[in-house]
Amino acid sequence: MTNNKVKIGLIQAHHDVDGGEPVSVHKRAAIEKHLGLIRDASQKGAQMICLQELFYGPYFCTEQNAKWYEATEHIPDGETTHVMRELARELGVVLIVPMYEEEIRGVYYNTAAVIDADGTYLGKYRKHHLPQVQAGPAGCGFWEKYYFKPGNSGYPVFDTAYGKVGVYICYDRHFPEGARLLGLNGADIVFNPSATVAGLSEYLWKLEQPAHAVANGYYVAAINRVGYETPWNMGEFYGQSYLVNPRGEFVAMGSRDKDEVVIGEMDRDVITEVRNIWQFYRDRRPESYDALVELTK
Which of 127, 144, 208, 260 is flagged as catalytic? Predict the structure, then answer.
């Protein structure tokens, strides 16, 4: 593509259904809501659009309940991927769609599918780093190891109609190693769909990912839910979805507490300019980094 400027759409939303409802009710309501938000983003000019982590339901990992295994789908053969491929083709947009994936019966991943602007399924990223932390009242927490197997698909970069896309998911953002690998694999932009609540890590929300953008010379798009989810009320999902450029500058920022389509612009000329000034890739010394791996064995 000759135009190096690309409009990015980030969708943050409150999940409106109480957690006690059947899984099918959650999925139907959330998918319908997000289809409308995707159309809104497209009408506002977005060419790449990313949804929030596990978009078609609540952040159910706040409890440990086998009921939520019913939310799994095969990717790309599941119904949601099919619907999103049709919508991407209709609107001519790239979609990053985070879902609960079933690989085989009983083996599940926290996954994002990447769909090109012509509806082609390009592949998926599986979340590598899984939190297992009590973080709220009455045993609420981030109990992801109950639901997911750690990702095993590496750190792929997808060559889309509008640029090269990498994906990191929520807790992954605390780990710089994968962020670097996405840059080495050629990403122009890394999307980080999340579900994170106010409290201990909120102050990191606007620190870590701008730092990844600067260290790796690419754009980062960070997406977060909004509001409280019942009956758990673990904490406030504080929104503030944003796009940040390779200088660490915020290009667009969402509100804290409302459903919103956040629109920002990625300019690949800025990536080139920054990398020509800060030659971090040229000056790397990978032959000296063996201890990063050796110390963990």
Answer: 127
**So what's the architecture of 5-294 in CATH?**
4-Layer Sandwich (3.60)
The one catalytic residue among 33, 53, 73, 208: 53
Smallest CA-to-CA distance from 194 within 173, 175, 215 is with: 173
Region of 201 on the Ramachandran plot (φ > 0 left; ψ -120 to 50 alpha; else beta): alpha
Place of tokens 């790449």: 48
Instruction: Give the whole-angstrom CA distance, residue 199 versus residue 193.
Output: 18
CA-CA distance, 224 to 257, in Å (whole number)?
A: 10
Catalytic-labelled residue, pool 50, 61, 144, 170:
170
Query: Would you call the peptide bond into 150 cis, given omega within 30 degrees of 0 as the criterion?
Result: no
Nearest of 193, 221, 222, 281 to residue 6 by alpha carbon = 221
pTM over 0.85: yes
Bond into 231 cis (ω within 30): yes
- 53 noted as active-site residue: yes
Give the pLDDT mean for 15-28: 96
As a whole number of Å, the end-to-end CA separation of the chain is: 44
Q: Are strands 219-223 and 242-244 parallel, antiparallel or unpaired?
A: antiparallel
- The SS3 assignment for 284 reads coil
Our measurement of the distance from residue 203's CA atom to the centroid of its chain's CA atoms, rounded to an integer in Å, reads 19
Residue located via tokens 């200088």: 247
Helix/strand/coil for 140: coil
Cα distance between residue 69 and residue 50, in whole Å? 23
Decide: residue 55, CB within 10 A, 0-12 exposed, 13-18 middle, 19+ buried: buried
Structure tokens at 168: 């990191």
206-246 pLDDT tens trace? 999 999 999 999 999 999 999 999 999 999 999 999 999 99
